[in-house]
Amino acid sequence: MKTVLYFLFTIAVGAIIGGVTNALAIKMLFRPYKPIYVYGKRLPFTPGLIPKRREELAHQLGKMVVEHLLTPQGIRKKLMDQEFISSAVNWVQQFAEKWMDDEKTIHEWMQYFGIKEPKKWIGAKAVDWVDQEYEQWMRQIRTKKINEVLPQEVRSKMEEGCKDMAGYIADRALDYFQSEEGKKRIGKMIDEFFVGRGMLGGMLQMFLGNVNLVDKVQPEIIKFLSHQGTRDMLAQLLLKEWNKLENSPFAKIEEIVGRERIRQTIRQFVAGMVEMNEIFDRKVADMIAPYRTQIIDGWVPKAVSKAGEWVCSQVETLIERLQIADIVRGEVETFSVERLEEMILLISQREFKMITYLGALLGGIIGIFQAMAGLWI
């Protein structure tokens, strides 16, 4: 009986020593959290292993994540997985459908994204863009001749337009001189003509009579303007002037019209077009309704596929730019020791218990051998 009790006692002592020792060793991984000093000297094994090596642990965790967990190969494999692609396509399709069903207008969407006055904002951006494009375009062509810049079709139309312009000028002049205002103008011109001739002019005016002379001159002017030869002459004059202008630098047009006037006209035109455009008041859903099926079933899968291919080709650069190792290290360094202990125990609590039980088991086995050795001796 004494032998049995001796064996049980030795086994129990060995098991308790083994279990407590392992449990204490596990606790010493985390505890104490801070170094303990006695008479100015730090006690050994304080702080615990993990608090003492937290910076190194954070560095190694960041390195492990990049080199062994979030590797370019693993990310590519996941991105090329058909199940992942299908899931991504479904998610984007659901998002697109939700977005296309929204009743917001373009104006409201732009306000939603922080643009308080969309029309003014778009107008200002459009004016700036057109202004820059105009200046850039003019820098390239100012020194070139007009006939080198304008297409042949435009030049041909301008030449044809000279005939139409000549006819237009003649018709407007004809309408004017046939009117009462034109008749008065002729009379005034005749009076000015005679006044400029001094006494001889006055005598001729008295002899001829102004009223009769106007009645004679007006039909001749009308006849002159109505004659086809007059119109041909005007067309030739306009064509001649156009040919001269064609051989001038393009800057000549800017000089004639006025550079600032051109730019101001363009600005006003663009700003007016934006302000008057009713597209801002239209609902996005109504605008894209005809293309809904094409967007959902065609564009979205292609866009997801292209995006996946691009990410696969740039995954190394993205990992490098994101600096994932530094992110992990920084996050771990901000953790308190209590949180690190909680995280590690949450993952390995079962294994730590098994280590404690294993220590007790080994201690009990050692107790058996000690008991046997004590009895044998």
Helix content: over 70%
**Category by helix and strand content:** mainly alpha
For the biggest sheet, the summary is: 2 strands, antiparallel
* β-sheet strand percentage: under 5%
Radius of gyration (CA) equals: 49 Å
| Record field, number of beta strands | 2
Order of helices and strands: HEEHHHHHHHHHHHHHHHHHH
What is the oligomer described by this structure? single chain
Please list the strands of the largest sheet in the order they lie side by side.
Answer: 1-2
Uncertain regions spanning at least 5 consecutive residues: none
Figure out the total of helices: 19
Q: Write down the overall geometry.
A: rod-shaped
Mean pLDDT: 78
Terminal-residue CA separation: 19 Å
Notes on the structure:
The protein is built from 19 helices and two strands. A hairpin with a 2-residue loop joins strand 1 and strand 2 (41-42). The chain has helices spanning 2-27, 49-52, 54-69, 72-80, 82-100, 106-112, 118-141, 146-149, 152-178, 180-195, 198-208, 210-226, 228-246, 251-257, 259-276, 284-288, 292-322, 324-334, 337-376; strands spanning 37-38, 41-42. The chain is 82% helix and 1% strand. The radius of gyration is 49 Å and the shape is rod-shaped. The mean pLDDT is 78. It has 377 residues and is mostly helical. It has a two-stranded antiparallel ribbon with strand order 1-2.
Q: What key attributes describe this structure?
A:
single chain, 377 residues, mainly alpha, two-stranded antiparallel sheet, 19 helices, rod-shaped
